[in-house]
Amino acid sequence: MKLNKFYIRYYPPGIVFEYQKRRKIKQKILDLFDIERETNVEKLAAQIARDEPLITPKILPQLETILQKLKDKTLFNNRDNVHKSFNVDKTLSSGHLLPITNVSIDKIGDICATGSYDRTCKIWNTRTGEETSTLIGHENAVYVVSLAISGRLVSHECVCGEHRYPPWHDMPN
C-alpha cells in the first residue's frame, strides 16, 4: 500500500486517504467528529499514525499540518467570531405557518422569496421586512423558489412538479 494524497473534509470533519493497493486506487475515510478547540494536533497525529499503516514517519509532519488546517477551519474555532461578524438587521414579519424550505434573494438584495411546507410562496421586501405578496394554490410543499437576475420574475415549484403560475412569471405588486 502506498499513500497518494490526503483530502480534507471540513463537514463533517475528517480526512480521506487516497492510496494505491495492487495497482488500484482506493480511498479510506477517517472521521474526526471529536476534533475541537482543545484538541492537541501532535497527539492526534501520533495516534492516527499508530493506528493507520499508511502514515509513515516521513508523512507525519504533513498529517499534522492537515489536522491543524482542519482544526482551524472547523466551526469550533470560529464560533466566537461568527457572533461578532453578523447582526440581525431585519426580521420578516408574520410569515409562513409551517417551516420554510427554501429562500431566494435577488442580486441587489431588495426582494426575497420564500417557499414553505404551508404550500405557499411569499415575496418579501427586505428593506422593510414586510410581506408584499403570497402565491397560493400549490398541492404540496413549495421546495423550490428562484428569482431571475432582474428580480422581477419568480419561479416556484412543489415536490410534485405542478405550478400554480407558469414556471417564470412577473411578480405580483
From TrEMBL:
Keywords: Repeat, WD repeat. Transmembrane segments: none annotated. It comes from the Eukaryota. It comes from Acyrthosiphon pisum. WD repeats lie at residues 93-134. InterPro entries: WD40/YVTN_repeat-like_dom_sf (IPR015943), WD40_repeat_CS (IPR019775), WD40_repeat_dom_sf (IPR036322), WD40_rpt (IPR001680). Pfam families: WD40. This is Uncharacterized protein.
